[in-house]
Amino acid sequence: MMSEPGKYTRQPIVSVLGHVDHGKTSLLDFIRGSTVAAREAGAITQHIGATEIPIDAIYSICGNLLSSKKFTVPGLLFIDTPGHHAFTTLRSRGGSLADLAVLVVDINEGFRPQTFESLNILKQCKTPFVVAVNKIDAISGWQKNDEPGKIRMEQQRPMTKNLFDEKMYDLIGTFFDNGFQTDLYYNIADFRKTIALIPLSAKTGEGIPDLLMVLIGLAQRFLEEKLAFESGPAKGTILEVKEDVGLGTTVDAIIYNGIIRKGDSIVIGTRNEPLVTIIKALLKPKPMDEIRDPRERFDRVREVHAASGIKISAPNLEQVVPGAPLRVVADGNLEELKTDIRNQLKINFDLDAAGVIVKADTIGSLEALLKESRDKGISIRKAEIGSVSKRDIMEASASTNPLEKVIFAFTVKILPEAKEELANTDVALFNEDVIYTILDKYDAWCVKKKAELEKQRREDYVHPGMIRFLPEYVFRVSHPAVIGVRVLNGRIKIGMHLMRDDGHAVGSIKGIQSDNKSVDEAIQGQEVAISIDGVTVGRQIKGDDILFTDIPESDAKKLNEMNTLSSDEKDLLNKIMVIKRKINKFWGM
Asked: Of 125, 108, 92, nearest to 17 (Cα)?
């Protein structure tokens, strides 16, 4: 729609996010299906990765809800690939290209892991959004009616209305805990301060007109200036890179500004240097009801205006990266575009000298995973787009820190040779399609791995321990001496040698008993009986003596290097080193 000479108002790009099975796909399917009946008013157009609903179709679907309103916004462009995957792919300079978002939440299940993840992405990108509170039809006693939102609620039975209110209050409370003020859309006075909750059913269609009304209203009121674009060279983002029969490697792109034409020179981001190529064909899917022969799924078009999804056929697209920018070359600006694309493809995080390896399918996904990992204090030494390769496994395996022999793989393939290599290493691979799941599984693995390492380390090296001889507990004077002790710091184990605070050895621990049961070790705070070989009570040791574990010098050096002791154990090791240096001043250096 023309707003002034040389300028157009495009439709907003609307992305749909939410937890799996909460109804993202069903919502889009119902919207597409409902517009079939509205074809006379304004037929939908199917794009690559998107569905365009013109304003006339929205008027038809919404009926009386929009009877007295007129809009200059020409419609809505819904992204067809639902979920945060598409949302993070559609990005520009770290932000999302989506102008609006719909967060789908199942009213009966409430917040789930991907709901929180989606909410975090919306926060990071500062994208305006509304909440589609789905599956109201599944509330016990719900009666379908086609009245607008508030009236629909008021016409439910009291018990059903109470159930609905309880579930809504829970949702509103969770949003509040996460920093968002929300309310039912028909109660909101200022949409800039309060997020709209729109109860609906993707199954029955109740509330779908209300959702479209709110979205088009927000776009008209708050985004009209942002939606104006010049009729110049196109700007877009790569959604997917595909192999198509008869076409070879193609890219699916969202064009969000300007015009793209067959024969244009374009610059696209790749894994290496930006690619310069020439468009051989622009392809759009045939409308759903016109598909007869799968060999003729596309219409070839000469040009496409923003905002739109389009399939592009051009040479040398194999190395193009999903999420990368696409630019149409204008006179004399090729080098400028290349520089701009290089800058956009730089990951906005400085990598660490050591840490885990991160692989993801798109630039946006990689950035999201890096940010969430960094927020949890996880160091990252390598971050790349693409499948997990044998080289990745080998690099992870080479890490000197067992807790960093780790690869995070977000919605990517594990290549066959990588699987073979993985089977022969101790590398931990976390391959999931939910960032929170990767990080939660990594946390659980870390706890288990640290316990294993701690156990192994204590078996490999003598650790510091300090005990006090309890004078009232002398069970045997010698051969072996059996006495009661309290562990003041660290721990003691069977086989450990003991020494006094003057550095003289006083035998080794032959056995430990706690509550008349034999145990392998005792830790700080415990009172146990120990048997000591090679010592006589009253000669080498006496009541209230403080005894220390006699650590071999090589073990003391190694424990210092490993830096894995607790602060109390470090202090105790330092005390032992001071004692040892009374005899050998260079001990442990």
From this structure: 125
